[in-house]
Fold this protein.
Amino acid sequence: MSSSASADFTTPPHPAGTPGDTAPLVPYGWDEEWAAAFAPHAGQGLLPGRVLRVDRGQCDVVTATGTVRADTEFVVPRDPMRVVCTGDWCAVDPGGDPRYVRTLLPRRTAMVRSTSSKRSEGQILAANVDHVIVCVSLAAELDLGRVERFLTLAWESGAAPVVALTKSDLVPEPATLAHLVEDVEGAAPGVSVLTVSAALGEGTDVLAAIAAGGTSVLIGQSGAGKSTLANALHGEDAMEVHVVRDVDGKGRHTTTTRNLLVLPGGGVLIDTPGLRGVGLWDAEGGVGQVFAEIEELAERCRFQDCAHIAEPDCAVLAAAADGTLPQRRLDSYRKLLRENQYIVAKTDARVRAELRREWKSRGAQGRAAQAAKRGRLR
């Protein structure tokens, strides 16, 4: 991001007030519940504020008296799940140079993915979000498996997901566009799927109405048009944008930090850098919601702990066999569950033990099947 873009979003659009007047924070999502959560810190002379951006141990925080730069070193830096994140509400020093974030208010929601670290750590992508807008570019080949991953993160966060199929103006044939929407709807049960063209201004009004209902976060790959969409919703070029490469349709990381913007029509928007990796982090509930039809079928299996692999009277396998359940969906479901189970097992000894027993059992079954096969061939 350029320095000019940083100046745009860190400037409060409303006049600063006095330390005891929290009215300037209302456009940023301040309400009675946040006021109650902050009350114990008010007696210590601290100020409430919302984190607009975090960068190398410091953050921009909007307070009733304006936007301040604060250090984050007092907020449990060794716990990756408690680091200061864009969207957090916090208590900051009323003055001083430097100022410090003294504590975070309890998060209502948190969007978390696993990191590439072998220590199995979670990374907070955005905090206190009401809507997750999953941006999927129609200028690139549709990857339904990746859409399902993003939706799993969204559901697990506690926020409500929405899929925005961006750059719809690049799909001129209505029939083709309708087919793409249908494919994504099949991968996103219970989720609104919208077609959006920021270039033509189509569909942005619907997204603006959704975003007006609280705090929304834009997530997706680089080149999905998140920053362009953020500018369209904001009504001005608050975020820098880059052209997507013609060779492979991929974009550069235009946005390098997570930035919080107040929208003119109401609501708050968080733009995020493009995500290459979308690792799950203890997201079994999210997987269940993305694959709601499989979870519903599983209730009709003979065994409650059915793994839907080779068990008798498995309703999931029966649905896959007769075509009611697409095999792609079942394969994706299995893959995400295995990945999530592996992540959980890194930090949960009981789960690790269960996995070892399961692997040994499957290995024994496989060896027995191979032995029986060799016996028949003799």
Q: What stands out?
A: The chain has a mean pLDDT of 83. The CA atoms of residues 58 and 71 lie 5 Å apart.
